[in-house]
Design brief:
Oligomer: single chain
Number of domains: 1
Strand content: under 5%
Helix content: over 70%
Order of helices and strands: HHHHH
Distance between the termini: 108 Å
Radius of gyration: 30 Å
Length: 205
């Protein structure tokens, strides 16, 4: 005589529901873990960018101060009756500071960059574009440096060549002032305390 096994549908339903719940819970936990990891990486990348910008800013402030001192010294030397290359030479220097973008490039290549707010990403893109423009002008100045020094040293009238050198320093400082403003605005939004924050003074000659 055939005996058909009785199926406990209630028990089977509970078991199936438990399995489904366990699978869904595992998927949710995996998603939560991945999301938390991406958020952590995004914050870590942002912290590195803040550190990079803070260092770049410190170097830029020092460069602006140096260039101002060179401009003042060269301008004063132009008023001397006996203008000589030896009088000018100590101030015929260029110091652009550090314009590193390694942390930003690393952050951009990371999948976690999407977890950084769009506003911060746009602000950083504009900041590093300004930094790149400043670096490009510095590079142009450096390429012209030997010719400028030769003109000052060999010219019978070094005043004109010296004024040209001063103009390059002034343009460099004007661009540095714009970049410093970008640095300060970004660091303030990140809650970083800034000593001697820019107020447009960076662009003064």
């Amino acid at each position: 005589m055939d005996k058909t096994a009785k199926v406990n549908w209630r028990k089977a339903s509970v078991e199936v529901a438990s399995i489904v719940f366990a699978v869904l819970l595992a998927l949710w936990l995996e998603g939560w873990r991945e999301d938390t990891e991406q958020q952590y990486l995004a914050q870590e990348n942002l912290d590195r960018v803040v550190t990079e910008i803070t260092q770049n800013r410190a170097d830029l402030v020092a460069s602006i101060a140096l260039h101002k001192s060179y401009i003042q010294a060269l301008s004063a030397a132009l008023n001397e009756e006996a203008l000589s290359f030896n009088l000018l030479a100590p101030h015929l220097k260029v110091d652009g500071g550090t314009t590193s973008n390694a942390a930003w490039q690393s952050a951009r290549m990371s999948t976690s960059v999407s977890r950084i707010s769009p506003e911060v990403t746009v602000e950083l893109a504009a900041l590093y574009d300004t930094q790149a423009y400043y670096a490009d002008y510095l590079n142009f100045f450096f390429q012209r440096y030997i010719d400028l020094i030769s003109d000052i040293e060999e010219s019978a009238a070094p005043q004109t060549a010296t004024r040209k050198f001063i103009r390059h320093l002034a343009v460099t400082n004007a661009l540095a002032g714009q970049l410093l403003g970008r640095y300060d605005n970004f660091l303030k939004t990140q809650g970083v305390s800034i000593e001697g924050a820019s107020g447009g003074a960076g662009s003064e000659n």
